[in-house]
Amino acid sequence: MKLPEFNRTLRQLVTLPLILLLLMAGFLVWQILAATRAQSAIDHSDQITAQLQELQNLFIDQETGLRGFQLTGDAVMLDPWKAAAGPIQTRFATLREMLAGDGAQLTSVNELDSRYNEWLGFANAVQHQSPAALNAAGMNQRGKAMMDGIRATTATMLRHEGDLREGRYYHARWLERRELLSLFISAIVVGIILALFTRHNVHAISVSYLRRIDEITEQSDKLIDSQQWFQTTLESIGDAVIACNNRGAVTFMNAVSEKLTGWPLADAKENPVEKVRRVKQVVGLANHTVLIARNGREYVIDDSAAPIMSGAGKMIGVVLVFRDVTEERRVQGALVASEKLAVAGRLAASIAHEIHNPLDSVANLHFLLEQESDEEKRGEFLRLAQQELGRTMQISRTMLSLYREPKAPIQIDLRELIEGVLLLLDRRLQHQGILLETNIAGELAVEGFPAELRQVFTNLIVNAIEAAGPRGRVRIGMQRAESGELQGAGAIIEVTDSGPGVQPDAAKKMFQPFFTTKGAEGTGLGLWVSMGIVQKHGGSISLAESPDPELSGACIRVFLPARTLAQRAGEPAA
């Protein structure tokens, strides 16, 4: 049973009893109202009977007073007669009001009123008779006959009302029995309905609950199997894997990580890179990171850290993946050295020519100095000779700087560094008729190793010259880069050429080792080594088509951070 269906069943279990109880309550209210009306009718009959009996007593009081007056002639005997006159009229008015819905009784009231008024006329006449006439037999018989008629009418009304009350009483008793019976039957019906309905739904919920338990058990078994499968997979892969929770405590280490670190999982305590917890995405750690094992042994590792996210998008931990690349870095170092020699070889002919020309000029100027006696001309020749020797020394120092490397990163003026590379390549640029355009900002410094960065820009500019071809164009631009979330402040250098560009398939492989588009002339190491150097400095390098329509070739973009954690090749990171 799915959640919506389960909720609907619960609503039915609550709603149906409420509806049945409301219906039962409504039925009982109707029964109670009927019984109340029947009881009210009985009370109404009792009230009418009480009024008739009081009226009858008042008639007797008046008759008694009149008889006393007839016997004695004393007016004091008429006091009861006078006292009853007002209440009698009130009782007649009350009876008419109470019997408004009963035509037979209302007719009887009118008849009684008529008989009373007739007797009242007789009584008034008696009060004005002479004492001798008061006790006349005929008068007494007449008055008695009138009062008997009044009594008879009153008795008839009392019997009629008594019959009505008796019928109403039995009706009320019947309603009471019906009410009890209805309550009993309705309780049984409601109970049966609720029992059947509840049994059906509880059975459905029970079946669904048992089915859900089976599903959860099955899912739990699958989860356990999956967990064991992933555990086995992580234990079996060749890379070291360490997982941490969001507090930085280690929760998992595979066998490779325990072997490299020398720490078993039970004893391990690590803190993942705080940057991962902040940006919540995969982050590569510092280049040339060195792992110091528990026994003090050092391993050069290639590593990355990634967040572990919950289904709700909340970060619940960090996973570190790394592998031993000590031997790989040694081989890479050999390839870098080989590429550095290759760069020197490619520059050798140009540098020899650059040095030969100034030295040839110095030799000629020396010959002229020996032949010239004019001191002014001799000074001019000497100045020219010093200028040519200065150019030779600058080329020599630039060439030597390709191999001299400080032990730690130093501040590098990128403008000066790139101009030095262009000085080495000046002869080649002139020989091929390359139009060089530079858009280099003012002083822009970064931290790094100057020899390595000269090697990078020598590779990039030589590639641009070769791609542009004779009489082509090469543009070198440099600008400041502001800091961002995933990138600090630094410099962006772009080298753009007017060559044919790079095919999309080839662009994906340009930074792979031993991949070249130059055939036998290329080693396939230049861009790969350049990428390694740039990444070592904490920067990035990318290749794309030129966005400038005037230069339709390739554009290679290098970002170098203002500060770097790079170390000299062969030295571990702190």
What order do the helices and strands come in, and which of them pair?
Layout lengths: L2 H70 L6 H20 L4 H25 L3 H4 L2 H100 L3 E6 L4 E4 L1 H7 L12 H6 L3 E2 L4 E4 L5 E12 L5 E10 L1 H46 L3 H26 L9 E4 H11 L1 H7 L2 E6 L4 E4 L1 H19 L4 E9 L8 E8 L6 H4 L18 H11 L3 E6 L8 E8 L13
Parallel strand pairs: 8-10
Antiparallel strand pairs: 1-2, 1-6, 3-5, 4-5, 5-6, 7-9, 10-11, 11-13, 12-13
Helix pairs in contact: 1-2, 1-3, 1-5, 3-5, 8-9, 10-12, 12-14
Instruction: Specify the overall morphology.
Output: rod-shaped
Number of strands: 13
Q: Over all CA atoms, what is the radius of gyration?
A: 62 Å
User: How large is the count of helical segments?
Assistant: 14
- The CA-CA distance between the termini, in Å, is 60 Å
Percent of residues in β-strands? 5-15%
Which structural class should the secondary elements be placed in?
A: alpha+beta
Q: Order of helices and strands, N to C?
A: HHHHHEEHHEEEEHHEHHEEHEEHHEE
Kindly report the oligomeric state of this protein.
single chain
The low-confidence runs, each spanning 5 or more residues with pLDDT under 50, are: none
Biggest pleated sheet: 6 strands, antiparallel
Helix content: 55-70%
Mean pLDDT: 77
Description:
By secondary structure, the protein is an alpha+beta fold. It contains 14 helices and 13 strands. It has helices spanning 3-72, 79-98, 103-127, 131-134, 137-236, 255-261, 274-279, 326-371, 375-400, 414-424, 426-432, 450-468, 504-507, 526-536; strands at 240-245, 250-253, 283-284, 289-292, 298-309, 315-324, 410-413, 435-440, 445-448, 473-481, 490-497, 540-545, 554-561. The strands form three sheets. Strands 1, 2, 3, 4, 5 and 6 form a six-stranded antiparallel β-sheet that branches. Strands 8-10-11-13-12 form a five-stranded mixed β-sheet. α1 packs antiparallel against α5 (137-236). The radius of gyration is 62 Å and the shape is rod-shaped. The model has no long low-confidence stretch (mean pLDDT 77).
